[in-house]
Amino acid sequence: MSDPAPQHSPAMVEVHQLRVSYGTTPVVHDVDLRIDEGSVTSIIGPNGSGKSTILKAITRTVASSGVVHLAGTHTATLSRRSMARLVGMLGQVRDAPTDMTVRELVALGRSPHRPWFHPLSLHDRMIVSEVIEQAGLADLAERTVTTLSGGEAQRAWIAMALAQRPRMLLLDEPTTYLDIAHQVEVLDLVRQINQQSGLTVVMVLHDLNHAGFYSDHLITLEAGRVVASGAPSQVLTTDLIRTVYGIEVEIDHPTGADWPRIHTLPRGSVLTGRDLR
What global pTM score does this model have? Predict the structure, then answer.
């Protein structure tokens, strides 16, 4: 008797034959992908490979062709309000008014759940306080967003997205411009939220070690096409990194861990003659 087929979690995202062009320039070519509900997936690849564009296509913020299903529903049938209840999206560019407090920013996340111009309900205020606490911002709730450090501000924006009570969180380069300590702080928060609530997370990341450590699944893009998809230990190989990024790396696996640890090697003549042992 053959072994039973492996059981998959339900799909949160299913994309078939996705194509996106900017003007007459194609940037995403016939992409097929699947993201399991409750997983953390990172999209990796060089600059200009289409990573951010795919997130925008999933949320219909750029024109595209092909089929996208979210939680089994074709996105073409979703209203903007329904989409916002299903997906929390944080892009790379975010600006808050100079006098807006953290609490006021987070409260904006409740907009998809109440009529326009209606005040926050008691239920809304409870959710706002809950996600502020979850993001570790209780002591900063009445501070204006512009006075926060980069890491604190990023956590405030994530809290705003969480206040939407979405089933999926999309993060476009959430660690850009942050120092290493704040990068880890933000990614720890994202993984903690995933583990505690089962929230599906899709991130665009550049740091391959972060992508490997914090993700269940990786999708690698090159020139608008998916060239690899799978567990970090399957995707992050020396051959793939050489092919996609054009660099040489050494990879080891910490004892007992299922994630690869990547060490980049210098290229060119800069270190010619140096002993690299």
Answer: 0.91
